[in-house]
Amino acid sequence: MTETQRQASAELELKRLEKRVDELVATVRQLKDENRALRQRQEVLAGERTTLLGRNDQVRTRLEAMIGRLRAMEHGT
Question: What whole-number distance in Å separates Cα of residue 21 and Cα of residue 13?
Answer without folding.
Answer: 12
